[in-house]
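B., you asked whether I could sanity-check this one before it goes into the benchmark set. Here's the sequence:
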Amino acid sequence: MRRGGCVLVWQLAIGLLLLAVWEWGYALHDRAPWVVPALLDPYFVSKPSEIYHQFLRASCLVSTRGEWNGLFTPEFSRCLARAENNLWIAAFVTLKNTLAGFAVGVSSGFVLGLVLGRSDRLTAIFHPFIVAANSIPRIALAPIIILAFGIGDASKIVTAWLVVVFLVFFNTFEGARSVDRDHISAARLLGASEWQITWTVIIPSAMAWLFASLTPAISFALIGVIVGEFIGAEHGIGRMIIESEARGEAAGMMVAVFVLMVVGVLLASIVRRVQAHLLRWRPRAAEGG
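And here's what the prediction gave me:
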């Protein structure tokens, strides 16, 4: 407990120091330009205080006149109805598309990896096509996806799926190929069918490989959705960033970036907790002294 408290104090101190430098550091740029970089110019990265006030306005907690609306009040509801792409709607749309693309990508990647991992013939046939498809930068396909599926949610889900599916596929494929052959032989010796072997031996062994890919997969799904929103979207945090950039509002862009950071951390934490719960049967590595 003492060690954890010490770490927390250091983290808070470093965080407050960074915020203080960010807020007031650029005032020293003219006197000491060699110490304070030009990147701290509020025109590019705004200031924490301005970002905080912009967050309150974008989330309808404060009106444009600076009056406090609060939550679940008539003023708050009117602001939500009036602001078509407010922070709440944008975050909901981005999160919904991220989870949908993540779910479709994980499920399809897992099934494909399992099928090809169990069949040497299918692997030999489809291997060059998979390598060729994986060699294409998925983000470069985002404009084509927008052109094919429009600027609605479907294009964002497809983009997220395309980013996630190969990551999950290759992990599952390797997991299915690395199953201990002695376990498969023992199952066959006991009279298990191929389906029973797949269900009781292959899938449990591949699950560890699958879960190893889920944390980066959820982050990549979020990246895919944001890239799609950059190119064209009706709602979403990516559209908020593009609109703020067009107006030259650094505070608005930074609000969206911080919201994305919080969403990404929360999603990754949830995935890790689910992974720890579902893989609790695995023995843990002994901790060093």
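One thing to flag: Residues 234 and 255 are 19 Å apart (CA to CA). Otherwise nothing jumped out at me.
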